[in-house]
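pls ignore typos typing on phone
zinc ion + seq
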Amino acid sequence: MTDAKISEATWVELRGAANAAMTKAYVPYSKFPVGAAALTDDGRIVSGCNVENASYGLTLCAECSLVSELAMSSQGVAPAKLVAFTCVDGHGNILMPCGRCRQLLFEHSSKGMILETVSGFKTIDEVIPDAFGPRDLEDRAL
Ligand code: ZN
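k done
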C-alpha cells in the first residue's frame, strides 16, 4: 500500500508533532517514551504521549492521549476522524501501535486511514483486518 493522498510534507509535519509529543512522555518505569500524531479530516493535527502509572497495568499508550485530544478539540457532536497517523519511539524511529491501540484508532478512523508503519504505509484495514467496530454494534444489536 502506498500513500496516495497524504503529501510527504504532511508526513514530515506529523513526525515532528509525534517527536514533540514524545518529549512529554511520563515514563519513570520503562524509560520508553512514545509519541503519536495524526491528521484529522478537518485538517488539524492531534498528538499524544504515553503516561505510565505505578500500577503498571493502568499505563496509557500515546494513542490514548491522542484520542483524548481528538475528542476534546473537535467541534460538533462527534469527534473528527483520523486520516493519517504516525508513532515514534524515544529515538524518533517509527513504532507500530499495540493491538489495543489499533482497535482504539479504528474506532476514530476515516475510511482508508493511512498509518506509517515499520513496514511502510498501510491502511487501517491492513493493520486491524476484520475489525470489530461501531457498525457491528449498530447492525447486530437485538
Ligand atoms: Zn497501545
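Helices lie at 8-22, 62-73, 99-107, 124-127, 134-140. The chain has a mean pLDDT of 95. more later
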